[in-house]
Design a protein that fits this description.
By secondary structure, the chain is of the alpha+beta class. It has helices at residues 25-37, 50-59, 115-130, 144-152, 194-197; strands at 2-3, 8-10, 15-19, 66-72, 78-89, 99-106, 134-141, 156-167, 170-180, 199-200. Strand 8 and strand 9 form a beta hairpin. Helix 1 crosses helix 2 (50-59). It is globular and about 50 Å long. 30% of the residues are buried.
Length: 202
């Protein structure tokens, strides 16, 4: 099902998946901040504010999707943002443009409630419809919850970089998980813009 980027998709269980908008930046920053300030999930050391998050969203320039999961409350209106996910360039060099890197963060209060998987499935479905060939997820190890989520939506372990990050007094390994999206063709077809494809589910 293809949905314009400005519209949303509900799952019938109270969770709504939709394209992120600039007004979501504060909620996205609030979800991300604990992962920066505590633990080693993120390698950033200073939590970005809402303005910085809006800038990061704008960098996608309509090519890469930013999605959020929200809760439908009484009366059919939306509640707060439960989780966010987005894609970005895998690497800057031109030949990498058919692959992308994916990222997802779920609010602590929404852990293990299904929002993360629904959101990540929507991101993968959307990237596949856009024509990207591979999605790469980088996971600071250990992180069993993130590994299970990635593998639940089709990622498989591709390799590990040993002790490439240092944070909170420890060296950290980073694992890479890879999800095949579309079969590579010769010559390859350029990925479509998210602004043109919109949110896709299934």
């Amino acid at each position: 099902m293809v949905v314009p980027a400005s519209r949303a998709v509900g799952n019938g269980g109270g969770i709504v998946i939709r394209a992120a908008v600039p007004e979501d930046a504060a909620a996205i920053a609030a979800i991300y901040a604990p992962h920066v300030l505590v633990g080693t999930v993120s390698f950033e050391t200073e939590a970005p504010d809402a303005g910085e998050m809006r800038a990061r969203m704008a960098v996608s320039d309509g090519l890469y999707p930013w999605l959020v999961a929200t809760i439908r409350v009484e009366g059919g209106t939306e509640g707060g943002v439960l989780a966010y996910a987005y894609a970005s360039a895998f690497h800057k060099r031109e030949a990498y443009r058919f692959a992308c890197e994916t990222t997802i963060y779920v609010a602590d209060a929404a852990q293990r409630q299904g929002a993360g998987r629904l959101l990540y499935e929507a991101l993968i479905d959307t990237l596949r419809a856009q024509g990207f060939t591979q999605a790469i997820g980088a996971i600071a190890l250990p992180n069993d919850g993130s590994i299970k989520l990635h593998e639940a939506v089709g990622f498989r372990r591709a390799g590990v970089y040993r002790e490439v990050g240092y944070k909170n007094g420890q060296w950290i390994d980073v694992g890479h998980w890879q999800c095949a999206l579309t079969g590579p063709s010769v010559p390859p077809v350029e990925p479509k813009r998210f602004a043109d494809v919109g949110l896709v589910r299934g």
